[in-house]
């Protein structure tokens, strides 16, 4: 173990400083986060072990959790993923007097939300299944007990319900959930823009595989954009043509050729290959957009 430096603050002091920065000015915590990594190394607390005091391990875990939350505020998903990976041994560790983390479900819910915003549904379900399995091992083993973390924990339930709405094509419900009072915390709200991008991408996939074109006026509300100019920018980003107040999508055969050339499944595969279901979804969304137009 590296020799301890007298100039390195102790772990409780670092934790207090980081928690204060999280509440007041997360961008000011960069130096303290770097110092914390050195202090964890000096304290033999980067990875939990029986040779390290339980109180030290719990403080180290809290430092890593605070770092994860700060990275969300700094909009640094790569740093958040690194903290998530570092925290897993602490979450799996078991020892006398080593109490479970009260923030584990919050950190896990944020990680699920990050995976969802990135469209990584396989990893999303892997993490979720691990949670249910872990609860089954530690609980009564009954079916209702296994499901309780998904049904009763607001931090876990939130991304699970969003994923369900996304899979159903209920993009308007996702939009309402990410903007409403059901968001379980400030860090979750910071994902709103990422989710809106996911929603727009999904709606665009439905639209371009179901219709040759859409009016810009309808597309503004359909894609949850603030202006028709933003619609035009969004259309051009996706390679769609804009002419005479309408968005024109590539033909289906052109989409297929582009998917083959890019070695991808294509936009239809992103939300399922049932074109009929996609058309029904987009019809519902167009109707919703028209209702919004009447309100606005």
Automatic annotation (TrEMBL):
Signal peptide (from-to): none
Keywords: Proteasome
Pfam family, one: CSN8_PSD8_EIF3K
InterPro entries hit by this protein: 26S_Psome_Rpn12, CSN8_PSD8_EIF3K
GO terms for biological process, alphabetical: proteasome-mediated ubiquitin-dependent protein catabolic process
A single Gene Ontology CC term: nucleus
Stretches assigned to the CSN8/PSMD8/EIF3K domain: 105-251
Statement: the UniProt record of this protein carries the keyword Transmembrane helix: no
DNA-binding recorded as keyword: no
Protein known as: CSN8/PSMD8/EIF3K domain-containing protein
Organism annotation: Endocarpon pusillum (strain Z07020 / HMAS-L-300199)
